[in-house]
Structures are given as structure tokens and as C-alpha cells.
User: What shape does this take?
Amino acid sequence: MKYLDEYRDGDIAARLVERIRRAQTRAWVIMEVCGGQTHSIVKNGIDHLLPKGIELVHGPGCPVCVTPLEMIDKAHAIARRPETIFCSFGDMLRVPGSDGDLFSIRSAGGDVRVVYSPLDCLKIAKANPEKQVVFFAIGFETTAPANAMLAWQAREMGLGNVSLLVSHVLVPPAIEAVLSSPQNRVQGFLGPGHVCAVVGYTDYEPLAARFHVPIVVTGFEPLDILEGVLMVVEQLEQGRGEVENQYSRVLARGGNRPAQELIAKVFEVSDRKWRGVGTIPQSGFQLREEFREFDAERRFQVTGIDTQEPEVCIAGQILQGIKKPHDCPAFGTLCTPQHPLGATMVSAEGACAAYYAYGRHLKESDLVTVGDGSKTSLSG
Amino acid sequence: MCLAIPGKVVEIRAQDGMRMARVQFGGVTREACLDYVPETQVGEYVLVHVGFAISRVDEDEARRTYEALAEIDALGELEIPEVTEGSGGAR
Assistant: This one.
């Protein structure tokens, strides 16, 4: 409560903004990588609070958004099979595939269940031994320990009717892809706090050194984000490109060792396709050979998937910080959260969906001023 | 979806070889696995992501984070009905 009150009160926030203003001598482009940070920035209007010339662009850190359409179609094909109970985090249910979403499969009689934890699948599998329980194991590093434990426990408990449809992605290779693009505009990064709570931030250090780019691991609260921006701007102005930790009250450099150990036992790094971006080498996880019997792609040989993304969609460029939602002709018209055309509109954490949710698709003339006409948008 | 929600550990027990806890989030209590923060004791606060504690935090940090998550409507997963051992068959 205290932190948000302080933010709304504006005192500490104003002081941080003033410090950014004083540190800054030129324009800088900074990318926040985590979808939760994107949501917080847009909801709290933090980008509008920053001094002129500090531009925040929104990165690829929404796992729902970057799950490739082929994988979603594969999930739907498995979920339609009469012998399966298809389990998923709630965010994936309304992501449209080439033909409907998981909600429509459920309406048509498919057994699709939203679970809170991957471990729920163990209970469902035990209660339904005649069914195949398939879990849609998506996520970044934060979710990997939970998904790894499902595979581990399924093997320990000898549950032959559990499998995982794995679509796991990693943050550092995505940052590398952004920085390696010939169109790259990003000069500094806010690193993802809760991702680093699991894996630490040692993997970011070679990236910062190689590209000479500041990466500041940051929380998602408004004051965290402002402080993270300040730390990035100070580094940029001083010509430094290092990894710093704004979020030290939650995480340490090494992250969570027990979680990393189980991830390493269950998963191995593999190439992954990112929706809107394409294949990034060594950018995700797949099950290790010892756990492949729990791989839903192996258990259910789904073939004949042919997907096509709408040509108008520029999600790939938005995910890489090259363009903003407003640069897209379909944004807010042809493409809305109810009828998303691409990656950044399919989840509330996607840049386009966040812009839409907080009225940024509206024109100035559509807006009605309420109260004293103050233009601040601190509480969304 | 990479955000973790802070809660207070109110009960710890062993189940299927894992260290499981009941964790209180605001007015809701959920199950969470403590295997990744094995030193956690009853009464302490942890950050929980999809049913797994990934980090320990102090009470102030827990309260602050919880409020910030509520502010950006990121507590929806706590409304998902709990699957219990007995209700594993329910849809």
C-alpha cells in the first residue's frame, strides 16, 4: 500500500523523474522486456511521465504472445481428441488458433480445464486413469521450475497418462535477437525481475559486455520502473554497459539454485520459434531425452498443420521495439482484443492489448475530460 | 504471466515427496510447493508463481507487491478453482 500511495502522491515519483531529467543530455530508447512491466507502464502512464526524449519500447516478454500459431493449432488438435483432458493456464484459453480457441473447443464438448498450478494435472490424471491428461507448458524462466516439477513428479509417480506440450522460451536469446537486428533502436534494457528471481542474472552479463548495453534488472511497480529507467539512463550517459540490480530486495545475482537444478534435470536448451519473430537459435527449452516419454508432441503425432499470419500485422516489429502499436493500420480497428490478428494483441500483457485496454487506440477527439482536466494518468 | 504473487505461509506438510504449504493471499488460501525455498517456515512470506514459491520476501515487500499486483489486475489466477485430491475428476 505504502509504495503505491507514494507513487500516487507523486512525491517520490516526481523526484525520480527529476533525477532522470537531470541525468539526461540526449534522447534514449529503453526496452522493458517483461509483459508485466509493459502492463504496469501503460496502466500507470509511466511512459507519459518520463522526460521528453526517454522512449520506452515494449519487448517480447509475454509468453502467451510469443507462443507460435503452429503450437496453438497443435494444442487445439490434441484438445479436440476425445480421450484427452487438456489443461492450461487461463491466459491461453482465448488465444485464437487457425480455427477457434480452447473455449470454443470446450463448448463443442472437449474437456479443457484451466489449472492454477501444473501440479493440478497430477491430481486430475490420478482421478482419470482412462484419460490422457495434457498440460500446455508455456512460459519463460519464471514458469520453468513449475513445469519441470510436473514432468519430474509424473515420472516419480509413474503416471503414464500425463504429458506436456512444451513451448518454453528464454529471455537472454530474445535480447540478443533484438540487439543483433540491423533495425535495432534499443540502447538499454529493463531486465525482468521475476524471471531473474529464478535464474539470476549472470546470463545477462556477457550480453551487456558484448553489445556494451546497460541491462538493469527491475521490479514491476511504478517506482521500480522509474528507478530502473534512472539507472539505465545514468549508465548510458556515463558510457557504461553493465548489468545492475534494481530489484535486490527480491533477488540475488545467482537466483534460485534448487529451481535451477530441477530445470537442468528435466529440460535442455533448444531452438524455438517465436510468434511474430521467427526461429531464434537456442532460445527455449525442450524435455531431455530421459523425459521425452512425457512429451505430448511425441505422444500425439499431430501433422498437417499449416498456418498463415495476416500480412497486415506488424507484431514482430513491435516485439523487437522497432515499431509501436500506433504504427499499425489495423490497431484498434481490424485488430482488437476480441479479434486479435497477431502476437501482441492476444494477451493482456502484449503491447497492443495493453495500449487498447487503456484507451490508447482512441483519438484525442474521442476523449472526454473529467474533473479538473489534469492530464496526468497515474492510476490509469 | 511471469509475475509472482506474495503470500503468507500458514501451514506446511509433506505430500508425494514434496514440501507443500497452504499460503494465504489476501482473503484466499492456496496450495504451494516449497521445494525451491526449502528453508521457509510457517509465518514467513514467499513469492508464489503458478503454485510454486520461488523467493522469500519480508512482510513489507509482500504487502507492497500484493497491492501493486491488485492495481494492474494481475491476481486473476487466485480465482481459479482449486483441484483437490478428491475433486480431481470434476470439470
User: Anything to note?
Assistant: Chain A has three domains: 2-64+179-245, 66-83+94-103+117-170+256-299, 315-362. Residues 371-380 of chain A have pLDDT under 50 and may be disordered. The radius of gyration of chain A is 21 Å.
